[in-house]
Amino acid sequence: MTTFPNITLRLPDWISELAQAGARYPSIEERMRFVIALAATNVERNTGGPFGAAVFEADTGILVAPGVNIVEAGRCSLAHAEAMALMVAQQAVGTYDLGATHLPKLELVTSSQPCIQCWGNVWWSGIQRLITGTSVEQTQKFGGFDEGPIPPNWADILRNRTPKERAVEVIEHVLAEEACVVLKRYTEKNGVVY
Ligand SMILES: [Zn+2]
User: How confident is the model at residue 136 (pLDDT cuts 50, 70, 90)?
Assistant: First the structure.
C-alpha cells in the first residue's frame, strides 16, 4: 500500500527569541515594526524570503501568532508569511474561523501587500482587519517577486465584502520604506526569488 507524506510546517527556531505569545504591541507602527523585524531576521538567518506577518488582537495589540516565509525550507509554495501567521493563529485559538463571534477582533499585519494567494487566504480566514507595508509595485521592484494577477481594487473587494460582518478593514502602506529595506537586502544577498 502506498502512503503519502503528512504535512508539517515549522517556523524557524529563532522565532521564540523575537516573539512571545501574549506580548503587547500597542500601536499599528509597533506591530508593523515587529513583522518587519521578523522579515529582516528571516533574511539574515537564511531561513526564508524577506517577508514577515503576524496576527494580533486588534484592540489590545496582543500577539496571537507570528509568521515568516518558509517556502524553500518547508518545500511548500503555500508557506508565505501571511499564510503561516494565519495557520498558526488558527491553531492557537482553536478554530479555522478567525472571525468567530467568541473571539476578539483579530487582524493580520504583513510587511508586504498580500500576493494573490494570500489575498485569498485573508478572504477565507475570517480575519477582520489587514494592515500592509510595501505595495505590490514595491515588492516587485525591490524584491523581484511575482505577486500574481491580483486585481487593482483588491483592497476594496475586501472592504466591501458582504455580509457586512465578513468585510475586512484594510490599512495600507504602513512603514513601507522600512519594509522595502528588507526586500533590497534580500536582493543584495542574491536570495532565491519565486
Ligand atoms: Zn503570499
Answer: confident
CA 194 to CA 175: how far, in whole Å? 24
Domain count, the chain: 1
Question: 174 near 28, Cβ under 8 Å?
Answer: yes
Ligand 1 geometric centre to CA of 117 (Å): 5
Mean pLDDT of 89-105: 98
- Ligand 1 centroid to 175 CA: how many Å? 19
177 Cβ partners below 8 Å, 6+ apart?
none
The answer, yes or no, to whether residue 1 has pLDDT greater than 80, is: no
Range of the domain at 101: 21-188
C-alpha 82 – ligand 1 centre gap (Å): 6
Residue 54's domain is classified under what CATH number?
3.40.140.10
- In this structure, of 46-50, 123-127, 134-138, the range with the lowest mean pLDDT score is 134-138
> What is the chain's mean pLDDT, rounded?
95
d(CA 71, CA 24): 28
Q: Separation of 87 CA from ligand 1 center, angstroms?
A: 13
